[in-house]
Amino acid sequence: MSNRFLTDEELVNATGSHQKNSQAEILEKNGIYYIRRKDGSIRTTWYHINHPLRLNAYHREVPNYGVFFRPSGYYWKPGGSTETFAPPDATKVEVWVAYEKKVSKECQKTTFKNLWDKFINSIDFSALATRTQKDYHAHAKYILKVFGDAEAKTIKPKHIRRYMDARGQKSTVQANHEHSSMSRVFRWSFQRGFVTSNPCIGVDKFPKPKRSRYITDEEYKAIYDVAPAVLRAGMEIAYLCATRVSDILALEWSQVMDDGLFIQQGKTGVAQIKSWTPRLLQAIDLCRAHGEKGKLIKNRNGERYSYNGYNDLWNKAKQEATKKIRICIRLHFPRPESKSDDLSSNMMIKWPWQTTHSASSDETDWDRAASIPLLTPLSTDERQKLVTLAKKFLRQKKLLPLQELVLDAQQQARIALLFSLPIAWQDDFGLVHQGEVVHSRQSWDQGPVVLNWLEILDSFDLSGFNLIIHETAHKLDLRNAGIVNGIPLIPLHEVARWEQLLHGSMVDLQDEVEQVGEDAASMDAYATSDPAECFAVLSEYFFSSPELLAERFAELYRCFVHFYRQDPLSRLTALHAVRTQDARGVTQAPDRDNPHP
């Protein structure tokens, strides 16, 4: 009987109240021990009713902010945990002193909410896009509910993993976004000394489904036929110029030039002039209805389209087109997507050594073939060595144009030069065969590679995109036990550091993509697909936009310098120095053949 819990009716009779809070207050004032269940109900036993604690007025003079007395001492319950701060025989003064020390110590703790608020009020946050800021505020609702009161330094990767698993049951995409937000806050706090680590590092996000296919010609035509003129123009510019949507919406009429359409990529800052074609001129004509001043793509009010507004046009056109055919694609043109489906522009490169193939390159103008922006920074000695290897490439490998494609000697020479560029200085490292014998099951024996000539044309500049280098990087990756995993054939003691840096770059790029979107990301989002693609994509930047890679991932860039046995950034810097001095009329220029005196 004495250990039995009181029923609800008995508790009402004992306290004289039906209200749960009133019941708790009455029991506490009379020194009767009780518990409060999750549903808020009050429970106590007949033993505690008959044996109340010997409380007196003195005990009730202690702080009344979550403080209570038990026979074992004084306790404070500020949040989810209960902590003792004074013994049961402490004097009133001792209780107050101990309480103030406890509160002061608690106030000095840095909670995750403190870090979050500091970041929200920082310059870094104010520099983010308005949409991104809204996303952070939306994420705070869920993140701070779990981690807000937790001391920041006590949050471990296992806690992030549990949170991800719980959130992932409802939405894996949202869980990934919130992971990125937390990681960004921890990274910002780490750089300023508020925490000593980022617990989000090493906690994998949920896999992002890869795009399984490109838009087909049938789908493109179906949408184009029902799209308004302003959307047709954007579709054509995106397709013909390999331009991202954000860059298209930023185009001005002043960029319509005599030689072509001037486009500066927002991702890399590289400026190019896309030569006029009849189809591109027709696309520009579609934009003339709203005037030839200001933005090239604009609404009926003469204002620039927002990304969401332009996306609405796309969705409406796509919805209308689905009445004829099934379409499951979204607004995204990172590269001219249907080019690879045009077999008349494709070619195949057969990798095994072809000792019987005797294609002559004696009549090739190699100086002209090498006069592309990507190869301009090379010194005379470097260019001569590259040409030598390119000639060997043409003698020992076959370029097989498909269907109606015809490659002249200069085009073949440029392809050979680009394939040779990543491997030209690595023969001492065992990555290039100097003889005509290749060991079985090595990278050159993994079958042919099919490339598109229109995409190869986009590989001649310093834009950060280079299809040939991308494919060559995959071949070099295969050299390591025939496995494509982003770790090429490097010394064993360098593997762990290489893998760590490569994974770190993937995480960093994924965070950026999820915060600003693929179109606004500083690098190609394809690098976040897997380590092998990350290595290949970053190899593109290493050769065709080295300043971007070196600035973004400096230590990884140095690893690439060691692996590829060349430093494109130093070459580019030396070239800029020469041009600057020439522009100033300086007669003595530095020796480009020896950029590192």
Question: In summary, what is this structure?
Answer:
With 597 residues, the chain is mainly α.
Secondary structure blueprint with pairings:
Layout: H1 8-15, H2 20-29, E1 35-36, E2 42-43, H3 46-50, E3 67-70, E4 73-76, E5 83-86, H4 92-107, H5 112-120, H6 123-126, H7 130-147, H8 157-168, H9 172-191, H10 217-226, H11 229-241, H12 245-249, E6 260-264, E7 271-275, H13 278-285, H14 307-321, E8 346-350, H15 366-369, H16 380-396, E9 398-401, H17 409-420, E10 449-452, H18 453-457, H19 467-478, H20 492-516, H21 531-544, H22 546-552, H23 554-564, H24 568-583
Antiparallel strand pairs: 1-2, 3-4, 4-5, 6-7, 8-9, 8-10
What do you see in this structure?
- With 597 residues, the chain is mostly helical.
- It folds into 5 domains: 43 residues, no CATH class; 40 residues, no CATH class; 80 residues, DNA polymerase, domain 1, CATH 1.10.150; 109 residues, Intergrase catalytic core (hpI Integrase, Chain A); 192 residues, Collagenase (Catalytic Domain).
- Strands 3-4-5 form a 3-stranded antiparallel sheet. It has a 3-stranded antiparallel sheet with strand order 9-8-10.
- The protein is elongated, with a radius of gyration of 34 Å.
- The relative contact order is 0.06.
- The C terminus is likely disordered.
